């Protein structure tokens, strides 16, 4: 979407690659530490969970409800879509703004 054949691809500097790699490793370390240190409690449930139960749990406001994470993820996905559109249309938008 953002690279045309006649355009030359810009390569990142080595220092930026190193900083990015370190940030990814730190993020991976935090993620794995959070996963492995959390005590996952298994609940023995003899009743089969249906999709309606899962939907009610995701959208409930009470204990065990996930309405806030659900809304945060929706806003994050919207921001990612808008960012992708801005990146894809970046040069076209700036070219139109510079012309009288």
Beta percentage is: under 5%
Q: Mean pLDDT across all residues, rounded?
A: 79
Structural class: mainly alpha
* Biggest beta sheet attributes: none
Helix content: 55-70%
Number of helices: 3
Number of strands: 0
Query: In angstroms, what is the radius of gyration?
Result: 22 Å
Number of domains: 1
Instruction: Please give the alpha-carbon distance between the first and last residues.
Output: 27 Å
| Shape summary | flat
Multimeric organization: single chain
Low-pLDDT runs of 5+ residues are none
Helices and strands, in N-to-C order? HHH
Description:
This protein is mainly alpha-helical and 100 residues long. The protein has one domain (14-98). It contains 3 helices and no strands. It is flat and about 60 Å long. It starts with 13 loop residues before the first helix and ends with a helix.
Quick tags:
65% helix, mainly alpha, flat, 100 residues
SSE topology sketch:
Layout: H1 14-37, H2 51-59, H3 67-98
Question: What's a quick, concise take on this entry?
Answer:
With 100 residues, the protein is an all-alpha fold. It is 65% helix and 0% strand. The protein has helices at residues 14-37, 51-59, 67-98.
